[in-house]
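I have been asked to look over a protein record a colleague put together. Alongside the sequence sits a line of tokens, each denoting a local backbone shape. Please read both lines and tell me whether the tokens look consistent with the sequence. Take the sequence as given and treat only the tokens as open to question. I have pasted the whole thing underneath without changing anything:
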Amino acid sequence: MHFIPHLPRPPLDELVQFFWSSESSGAVAIEGVQLPEAGVCVMFNLGGPQGVLSREGQTDWWCSRWVSGERLAPIHLVAPQGANLLGIHFRPGGARGFFDLPMTELSSRIVDLDLLWPNAAALHERLALEPSVRARFMILELELRGRLRRAASTSPLLAQEAIRRMAVAGPGMRIRDLAAALGLGERRLLRRFDAEVGLGPKALHRLLRFRRVIDLLGAVREPDWPSIALECGYFDQPHLIRDFRGFAGIPPESYLAQRSVDPHFATSVEGGHTP
């Protein structure tokens, strides 16, 4: 699998963490778990069918373009004809100005993009006709710049300032203290997070801590788990392991054996394709 990230130019970089392209051979099926990584994601399918496998073994096939909201659990993906996807990964709180609804309405959901962006089909067609990945990124960037000018509110300042403060807070972070540091009442902070982020502050704090673990693992084969736990703000190694299993659905050892070039995707088919 070829996974290509692309960093947007200012001022989009305040709202979008990266654009990305993920492509693999259509002759090889892909199956695995996509880990939560903080941030709403918009995706365009330029290849074969993509589906989500339920716990009951049923596959829900996605539409051609969709929005994946904030979530705290993995999703089990299947792509029997390989993958050719193009995506926008927003920073936490960064997607709010591009969608005319509270972000909680997208939480833990995959929603047809046509329901939210009336021009989604035409945009998808332009992307599909462009053979260059770099040019596709430029099309997406121009689209978002146009939406940025039309958006009534696109500032992620609350979420980003909260994230900065969360980064130095330990596992015992209190919402009351965070709200006071941001100059808000506790209830108002929670309402703002519901509308702008789609997760509460504590849930986002835990998710960002987990994402930091994934970042630190990189290509490490034999991680120093106690050191990683300390650096990421866990009480201890067992605390990290419990959180990891909750977010990833698999233990850290399985993740290390199954991770792909996209660090937030782990294959799960024995003897299958490893992206």
User: Anything to note?
Assistant: Confidence is low (pLDDT under 50) at residues 269-275. The radius of gyration is 19 Å. The longest strand covers residues 16-23.
